[in-house]
Amino acid sequence: MHTLHDPAADELTGDTFIRAARAVLVDANKVLRERTGLAVNPFMVLRALSEAPHGRMTMNSLAKESETPRSRLAHTVAKLRGSGHLTTEENDGHDRRFRYAVITEKGRATVTEASAVYAEFLRTHVTACLSPAEVDLLRLVSRGLKSPTSSGRT
Question: Where is the HTH marR-type domain (predicted)?
Answer without folding.
Answer: 10-147
